[in-house]
Amino acid sequence: MKVRFEVNAREVEVSVEPRLTLADCLRHHLRLTGTHVGCEHGDCGACTVLVDGKAVRSCLMLAVQAEGSKVVTVEGLSKDEGLTPLQASFRKHHALQCGFCTPGMITTAHALLTAEPDCDADRVREVLSGNLCRCTGYVSIVEAVLDARAAYKGGAS
Length: 157
Ligand code: FES
Ligand code: FES
Known about the structure:
5 strands, alpha+beta, five-stranded mixed sheet, globular, 6 helices, about 160 residues, binds FE2/S2 (inorganic) cluster, single chain
């Protein structure tokens, strides 16, 4: 089947098997390997991307369901080669170690901060509770997200 959608502000048309997940379409057809695949069951959050502004587990969505949607992966968050304020905050706070969970953490946190730039630590923990990290212990991740809030106030970033 052919599916057309927008990914990182670029129109794409891909021929896919109807059963292909959006995660595998992004990684294998479009070479956007920043989206990681861990559990493939919706449990770990590593595959999270933005679909029409909402954080979505791309392992639980079929590529054909993206028809007509605007998909943003971790590669599409920055408009240039530089880090976004949220990414820079992760670096500043040492909020990643192996980095496997990081794309999902960043996309999930970006959706949260875009919708709720005044969120508190409890809200950050609640929203990120579906994103598993085996390295950091989460404290630095929560600190990084809280520190990035200022960049989202007034609709920035
Ligand atoms: S790979 Fe999608 S939630 Fe784990
Ligand atoms: S930094 Fe390794 S799993 Fe999160």
